Amino acid sequence: MSTIEDRAVGPHSRQSDSTDHERLVLEARNVDFNWADLPFHYVPGQPMATHVLNVLHLLLPAGEEFFVEVFKKALPLIKDDQLRLDVQGFIGQEAMHSQAHSGVLAHFDAQGVDLTPFTDQVRWLFGKLLGEKPHRSVRRQHNWLLEQVAFISAIEHYTAVLGEWILDSPALDAIGADPVMLDMLRWHGAEEVEHKAVAFDTMKHLRAGYWRQVRAQLAVTPVLTLLWIRGVRFMFSVDPCVPPGTKARWRDFFRAARRGLVPGPRRLIGVVGSYYRPGFHPSELGGLERAVEYLAVSPAARASH
After folding, report:
1. pLDDT digits (tens, 9 = 90+) for 206-232
2. Residue 45 region, left (φ>0) first, then alpha (ψ -120 to 50), else beta?
3. Are 281 and 21 in contact (CB under 8 A)?
4. 12 half-sphere exposure, CB direction, 13 A CA radius
5. What per-residue confidence (pLDDT) applies to 21?
6. Which of 127, 153, 291, 298 is most exposed, with the fewest beta carbons within 10 Å of its own?
7. Residue 262 DSSP code
């Protein structure tokens, strides 16, 4: 089981990026999920809440494959032993996340729901637009690697916030959301909270710079917002369980957010600003104790042992 201890890390080394923040031994859990009985609207009677969560399955397989490839390239540049171990754990966890979400996509495909018009665009975004740039000088390749790490750190800020939210979402239990999907989302969310500082600490260790940190988040925030909106609209367009022509409506989203079935905009907006503060560190986000507690009882995580 993971252990927790305090440590301090500094501006350009693992030992002083922040003071007295949480420590975990990161492990990749070889989880498995059976989707045979998954209803299409796994949040019962709530296509909006279901499809807001479905965007995770659309984005994360390609996104987390990208994370893995970038951090494999960054690993030889890391001089701090503890950070190197954390990055290895991060790589293992993200690879498993990608596989788990790909399993949901395969389930949809088996049900005759074609998601490739959207997922192909996501693969282009991570594989081509943000991927490796050939025929560059060594210096330019290094600078692009720093940009990639900064982009991932910015995205991980959101995944940590979403992970903390899904771990504390009793409304989904109360409404009868599918327990296998809930376990999958909460296992994933807990691991995002576990490794919430790894990408950020790597960015600082490699001296990517504060302005690169800010610039990456300024780019990531609107792109993620647009992708989420387009993803929900796309899921409604292929949903076989709603009347043809049914559109995603903002009032349905805000209603679901008020009920606690999806994270509300206030929660997300509140944490975005903190990332721009020069002294910010992801340990401020909290949620670690709940994450460790959930991983101790998660059916999938327990079965993986």
Report:
1. 999 999 999 999 999 999 999 999 999
2. left
3. yes
4. 5
5. 44
6. 127
7. S
24-62 pLDDT tens trace: 789 999 999 999 999 999 999 999 999 999 999 999 999
Task: Count CA atoms within 13 Å of residue 280 on its CB side.
Answer: 21
List the one residue out of 76, 229, 72, 86 whose CA is nearest residue 148. 72
**CA–CA dist 137, 139 (Å, integer):** 5
Tokens of 109: 């495909």
C-alpha 264, offset from chain centre: 17
DSSP string, 275-298: GGSTT--GGGG--HHHHHHHHHH-
Dig out the tokens for 167 from the structure: 């771990």
Question: CA–CA separation, 153 vs 202, rounded Å?
Answer: 9
Helices and strands (H and E) in the chain: how many: 12, 2
- CA 169 to CA 134: how far, in whole Å? 44
Phi and psi for 255 in degrees, rounded to 5? -65, -45
Collect all residues with Cβ–Cβ distance below 8 Å to 188 and sequence separation of at least 6.
56, 97, 100, 101, 163, 166
In which band, very low, low, confident or very high, does the pLDDT at 2 lie, cut at 50, 70 and 90? very low
Q: Which residues pair with 9 in a beta bridge?
A: 18
For residue 23, give the DSSP letter: -
What's the whole-number mean pLDDT along residues 242-263?
Answer: 96
d(CA 192, CA 26): 11
Confidence tier at 239 by pLDDT (50, 70, 90): very high
Those residues whose C-beta lies under 8 Å from the C-beta of residue 54, and which sit 6 or more positions away, are: 231, 232, 235
Fold of 50-303: Ferritin (1.20.1260)
